[in-house]
């Protein structure tokens, strides 16, 4: 074995000492990625992975640094940003991303992004117009 391979194995043992744990958190993250627009909660995630919800919560936090709920919120916010850029209304973006109410969505969006969804959408349209206008010459 080369020094490099030895170091990789040593680090893997420190960081990823249990392959089943790693598989569990990766599968949980994938499930969230594929189902963020549906009702997802810790009970469901633990049931799918046949593990205690408290154990799953600790594992996810250990490997990703955030809880599954925080990751779900992140994915939903990212999806809603995409929907808003595509021209969906705030309500449509809210429901398509898996949020339950436009008011709580707007509050959360503003807290995370720094702008209300409508203002974010306006800013994105202005930026896209500037990009298309900047490439044309008017001489």
Walk me through the structure:
One of its GO terms (molecular function) is sequence-specific DNA binding. This is Helix-turn-helix transcriptional regulator. It is extended, with a radius of gyration of 20 Å. By secondary structure, the chain is an all-alpha fold. The longest helix is centred in the middle third of the chain and has 18 residues, at 68-85. It folds into two domains: 18-70, Arc Repressor Mutant, subunit A, CATH 1.10.10; 77-134, Arc Repressor Mutant, subunit A (Orthogonal Bundle). It contains eight helices and no strands. The chain starts with a helix and ends in a 5-residue tail after the last helix.
Keywords:
Arc Repressor Mutant, subunit A, 2 domains, Homeodomain-like_sf, DNA-binding, disordered C terminus, transcription, mainly alpha, 8 helices, 139 residues
């Amino acid at each position: 074995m080369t020094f490099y391979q030895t170091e990789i194995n040593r680090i893997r043992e420190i960081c990823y000492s249990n392959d089943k744990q790693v598989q569990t958190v990766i599968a949980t993250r994938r499930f969230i990625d594929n189902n963020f627009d549906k009702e997802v909660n810790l009970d469901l995630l633990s049931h799918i992975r046949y593990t205690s919800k408290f154990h799953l919560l600790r594992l996810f936090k250990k490997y990703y640094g955030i809880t599954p709920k925080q990751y779900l919120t992140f994915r939903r916010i990212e999806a809603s940003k995409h929907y808003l850029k595509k021209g969906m209304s705030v309500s449509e973006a809210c429901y398509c991303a898996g949020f339950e109410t436009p008011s709580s969505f707007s509050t959360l969006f503003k807290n995370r992004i720094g702008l209300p969804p409508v203002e974010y959408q306006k800013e994105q349209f202005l930026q896209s117009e500037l990009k298309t206008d900047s490439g044309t010459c008017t001489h």
